[in-house]
Design goal:
There is one protein chain. This protein has 266 residues and is α+β, with helices and mostly antiparallel strands. The chain has 5 helices and 12 strands. The protein has one domain: S-adenosylmethionine decarboxylase (4-Layer Sandwich), CATH 3.60.90.10. It is 22% helix and 29% strand. Strands 2-3-4-5-1-6 form a 6-stranded antiparallel sheet, covered by helices on one side. β10 and β11 form a beta hairpin.
Length: 266
Amino acid sequence: MLDGYGVSASLPLGQADFVNETFNRILLELQLTPISPAFLLPYDYGLVPVDDGLSSFIFLKGGHATIHTFPLRSVYFVDIFSQDPLEQEQVTQVFKTFLPFNQELSRSFSVQRNRPVKSESFNSNEVFGPHVLARFNPQRNLSLEEANRFLEGLIADIGMTPITRSFSLLDRYQNPQFLSSIVMIAESHLSIHQDLKTHQVWFDIFSCKMFDYASVEALLTHAFGHVDYFSTIPRGQKHDERSTHLTNPKKLDERTKKALNVWKNK
């Protein structure tokens, strides 16, 4: 996980072609192999204009890589969830090379996905949201539909704002090993990854908004049974609410905003 603050205002964090090319080059440099192309999502019609930006996610085998850029704040947030080992220092350096940020203002954090993670204590008034990590074993394989329906239902349960429907896939057509599902929200993303051989499931909510995260464990238990571990990691400890001098050149009228959001009412 990387919160990259202090990005140069000249870096085109809002341009889809730049983010797409750069994010893919970063994954190649880290020797991570995508199992899907990047999905790029503009977010320029939200409730808070200064939070306009671009989100991208790429499925990895049994995991994902996401980036959420906020050009008007000169910041981007990254979450890489991989079954392949990654060194925190290497990841930080690669991002600093391709998407330079101010290291003193920024924060990187790593955990091992197969080990219980101790929840960090934090003051909800001093951070903007938690990263929820959980692991459980339902003793059966989930279907793509089940994973999708759970994630989309959870969005409403925790009061988040969807910007996509849920996307899911198997890591390969013949003899798949992993099922993955992810949904992008204005506050970042939610995901599920299951090892189809062991039935073990990893779940996360990467959030830029505070919510009733304690209720999520009960929702997971109700849907899937015993949760092996459940942890929360604070995000935004160094968050600066100020924006840059940049302004959004694209202004949407109310009719256009309505057209872009019609799908949410179905």
